[in-house]
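ok new one. same drill as before - structure tokens go in, u give me an amino acid for every spot. 193 of them this time. try not to just spam alanines like last time pls lmao
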């Protein structure tokens, strides 16, 4: 049997964790080993703060449970020890330096974010980190291992109970979450999701 290839390590910015369906898909992909997700307590605090501000029906206890489950996706999911790097970094928005510092500490190859202008590729390249929109990142994961990706999608869709979604509704949710390319790729596999 050939040796297992190392999985991509990806630091997830808070903005990709705000939409619950995208957050859940990213975590399900981590549970099946499609990639190695990385987060920090600061990133958790940011997405949780925004969800609580925008969705009064969601309780802090619910999000704390979600946070705990997310941290259990992989053994090294939670990154620490990056704080000393923060003041040494330069980004268009100084408030984003903690994200880059964590990506460097995690030895991430990818920083997944909707906010690409805040993470210019030229500033991340010296650290060996590529900033990627989640649609590009997820589409690449699908292309690399479609069977594994579909396994995660099946588990994700099966976990949806309030309300449940059929394959078409699931694909529509991906589109709403700005995952247009991924939805298009998966549309050919609707029977498998």
């Amino acid at each position: 049997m050939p040796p297992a290839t190392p999985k991509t390590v990806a630091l997830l910015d808070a903005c990709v964790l705000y939409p619950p369906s995208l957050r859940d898909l990213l975590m399900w992909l981590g549970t099946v080993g499609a990639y190695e997700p990385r987060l920090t307590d600061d990133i958790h605090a940011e997405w949780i703060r925004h969800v609580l501000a925008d969705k009064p029906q969601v309780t802090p206890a619910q999000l704390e449970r979600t946070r705990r489950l997310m941290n259990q996706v992989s053994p090294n999911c939670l990154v620490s020890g990056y704080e000393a790097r923060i003041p040494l970094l330069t980004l268009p928005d100084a408030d984003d330096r903690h994200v880059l510092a964590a990506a460097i500490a995690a030895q991430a190859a990818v920083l997944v974010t909707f906010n690409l202008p805040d993470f210019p590729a030229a500033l991340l390249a010296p650290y060996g980190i590529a900033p990627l929109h989640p649609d590009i990142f997820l589409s690449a994961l699908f292309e690399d291992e479609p069977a594994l990706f579909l396994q995660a999608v099946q588990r994700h869709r099966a976990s949806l109970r309030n309300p449940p979604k059929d394959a078409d509704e699931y694909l529509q949710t991906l589109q709403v979450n700005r995952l247009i390319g991924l939805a298009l790729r998966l549309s050919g596999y609707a029977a498998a999701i």
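The radius of gyration is 16 Å. and btw The mean pLDDT is 95.
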